[in-house]
Structures are given as structure tokens and as C-alpha cells.
Amino acid sequence: MAAILPTDKPYFQTGVVETWKHRIPWLLLLMVSATFTGTILGFFESALAANAALTLFIPMLMDTGGNSGSQSSVTVIRAMSLGDVEFGDLFRVLWKELRVAVLCAATLGAVVFAKVMVIDRKSVSVAVVVALTIVVTIVIAKLVGCLLPMLAKRLGLDPAVMASPFITTVVDALSLLVYFAVATRILGL
Is 116 within 8 Å of 54 (Cβ atoms)? Predict the structure, then answer.
């Protein structure tokens, strides 16, 4: 789950260099793929400059999206490992996770709207941008979170090795794209 290749040896019987070899390929891949996040932020630099308050919510949006995707991923990986879910169940899994996503998204969207208004004391338009972004991000994250492990297994990859970190990286980039698309429309940036 932490982007490492599996080993057949117990933890203390695996040497430092061998452990490094199992971890570094994924860390390199994830680091390079995370540069997309920086690229997206750079592309929308003027929007951030026009409304600096938007910057305050980026970590929360990205973390919530990553956590939402990881929840779905872990649940699906566990179900696959127990034999409860197979690739043929893909559409049933997507349908269930979509419904869960809508409920989670509506709840968190309402809470974050209130938080932005009451605690952060930002404008209604900023609160709407943040709330809509979190709603869309959670739906996307949960669908990506259940889809990627199933596809990984179908392709012969270990879903537990690639799922959570890869999902987080993908969802981070998507959440920023959604955030700036919504902000551009609502705030006219």
C-alpha cells in the first residue's frame, strides 16, 4: 500500500539495499508524476494571484481527495483478496462506490461550505468553489480508487503495491484541475 514491491522475506531478513531496490522505483515514478501537480499550479498561477484565498484550501482538497480514493481502494483490494470481488464485478463496484461517493461528497461539501463561511470567513463565492470542488473531487477519487486496483489486477500487477500512492497522485492532479475549472467559472478568474 506504500508503493513498495513485495518481498518474500521477513522484514529483518531483508537487507537495506534490497529494501531500497524494492522501494525506489515507485518513489521515483511517483515523484516524477507529482510534477504534474506543480505544472497545474504553475498554469493557474495568475488565478491564484487574483484570489490568494484559493491557495489556503489546496492542501485540504488534495488530502480529502486522496483519502477518499484510498478508502475505496483499500476496500476493493480487501474484497478482491477475499474473493468477494472479481473484474467481472467492475460495474457493480463502480455503481456502489458512486452512491457512497455522492453521500460522502454531499456531507463533506456541506461541512466545508460552512467551515469556509464561518471559520475562514471567506465570501460565499469562495465557499461555493471549495464546496463544489470537494464534491466533484470525492466522486472522482472514489471511482478512481475502486477502478485502478481492479485494472491493476487485471493487468497482472499487484494492486496493493501501486494502488494508494498512485491513486493519491492521480487524484491530486485531478482535484487541482477541478478546483481551477470551478474557480475560473464562478470567480471569473
Answer: no
